Amino acid sequence: MPVRVQQEDFDLSSEVAQLRAGDARVGAVAAFVGLVRDMNEGAGVSEMALEHYPGMTEKALEAIVAEARGRWDLFDALVVHRVGTLQPQDQIVLVAVTSAHRGEAFAACEFIMDYLKTRAPFWKREVTPAGARWVDARESDEGAAARWAR
Amino acid sequence: MSVRILYFASLREHLGMGSEELELPEGLGTVGELRAWLTSQGREALAAVPNLRFAVNQEMARASDPVLDGDEVAFFPPVTGG
């Protein structure tokens, strides 16, 4: 299962070990872990809640992974995204890919994150000293995804 | 025709509901028309969210995309995951 949406935390080492287990073709693993920061848009963040669109989320992530596999020679790819209530320093998302060489692995990992940021139906709500607020989408995220257009 | 409508994040909060099943009047053919009709039916938040996004049957959609009987149509603000 290349895509998981879950409340539970994940372990980077064991996820990567599982992803490349038994595959001696793998010469490169690239992994990205996104974390909850204690500061956003100038305000302290004490807690974050992640909402998603069950059903569509999984489909969207699978489509992004399929697109990455079509663009680069990957052996495997994994996306784990957490939902529910999280605290600063908690892990939010893991993207890991395996390939023969680093070029494909780095590019595919970044591509998957850029597309996830703009296409996967997740929404963050953060708690600050001024109250709870929905996080606004960043224009820079659209720009990052647009780099991969072709 | 009847459709299932879903709302997420700030839109869900503003409307006070996450979903509804509705029987649509004749002549509503697209997502954009559905949005305009819902807005006129007391769901003004649909007009207030900047850059509102749509999905039909769990695929990202455009305002000009068709809505058919039995479809699941979702409205939500721009996504902020990752």
Low-confidence stretches of chain B: none
Name of the CATH first level of chain B = Alpha Beta
Element pattern of chain B in H and E: EHEHHEEE
User: Mean pLDDT score of chain A, rounded?
Assistant: 97
Beta-strand portion of chain A reads 35-45%
Q: Report strand % of chain B.
A: 25-35%
CATH class of chain A: Alpha Beta
Could you please describe the fold and organization of this structure?
Chain A has 150 residues and is of the alpha+beta class. Chain A has a single domain, classed as Molybdopterin biosynthesis MoaE subunit (Aldehyde Oxidoreductase, domain 3, Alpha-Beta Complex), CATH 3.90.1170.40. Chain A has four helices and ten strands; from the N terminus they run βαββββαβββαββα. The radius of gyration of chain A is 16 Å and the shape is globular. The model of chain A has no long low-confidence stretch (mean pLDDT 97). Chain B is of the alpha+beta class and 82 residues long. Chain B has one domain: Ubiquitin-like (UB roll) (Roll), CATH 3.10.20.30. Helix content of chain B is 26%, strand content 28%. A five-stranded mixed beta sheet of chain B has the order 2-1-5-3-4. The termini of chain B are far apart. Chains A and B meet through strand 5, helix 2, helix 3 and strand 9 of A and helix 1 of B.
